[in-house]
Write a structure and sequence with these properties.
The chain is mostly helical. 76% of the residues lie in helices and 0% in strands.
């Protein structure tokens, strides 16, 4: 038996995301007042994705509890739809985008923080909030993957969806630059146009790799769990 029920963990994680989002939106940062607001930053988009995902998980937990013992095919059908949406969100958005944000942020930060998170931001964003946006995302999503089995779509369909998200964000970033004349991230200001294209292509490839890693990790966790249960019998 788990020390903490998975339903309680999901509620706690959801509340933590609400807290992070509220504190982030309350920050008085110049970048939030320009075109695109917070929505031009992948970190903020990822926080919204995670909050919606865990909100859906909590909704499924509550719905399962309320319909337990009820003999209603319609309720079961609606619950299966919610579970299907949850699994799709985990596979295509929550894990790959969350892992991508953590990996790319800390890789660039350790190489040269001015490329992605200038020291000036320390005057606006406290350390705990920075880690809430760029660190705890990954362990939270791994906890969810470990406590609940998620069915992944066919890899070709999953990768296509992830690519659409990645390309969509690249186009959005380019549009923001077209309107404002400023790139969202300092690293894009420092590289030549051709290198920028290569950078965008590499980042799209990385998020696709994160999708595959999530699929492999999910299979590994639940294949191991199944094997242990069989051995226990």
């Amino acid at each position: 038996m788990a020390l903490i029920p998975s339903q309680v963990l999901r509620v706690a994680i959801l509340l933590s995301y609400f807290s992070i989002l509220c504190h982030y939106k309350a920050l008085d940062m110049p970048a939030h007042q320009t075109y695109g607001g917070s929505w031009k930053f992948l970190t903020f988009i990822d926080l919204v994705i995670q909050a919606v995902f865990f909100g859906l998980c909590v909704l499924i937990d509550v719905s399962s509890l309320l319909t337990k013992g009820a003999d209603s095919r319609e309720q079961e059908r609606q619950l299966k739809k919610l579970i299907g949406l949850r699994d799709w969100m985990m596979a295509v958005l929550a894990f790959p985008v969350g892992a991508f944000v953590v990996f790319t942020f800390w890789t660039l930060y350790l190489y040269d923080r001015e490329l992605v998170y200038p020291k000036l931001l320390d005057n606006f964003i406290p350390q705990w909030l920075n880690h809430g946006m760029h660190t705890t995302v990954l362990p939270f999503i791994i906890i969810e993957m470990r406590t609940t089995h998620h069915n992944y779509p066919r890899r070709s369909w999953g990768l296509a969806a992830v690519c659409c998200f990645g390309v969509g964000y690249v186009l959005w970033t380019c549009w923001v630059h077209q309107v404002t004349g400023v790139w969202v991230y300092p690293v894009l200001e420092r590289i030549a146009p051709l290198a920028r294209v290569a950078f965008f292509a590499a980042m799209t490839a990385v998020i696709c790799v994160m999708y595959v890693l999530g699929e492999i990790l999910n299979s590994y966790i639940w294949d191991q769990t199944h094997t242990e249960k069989v051995k226990g019998e």
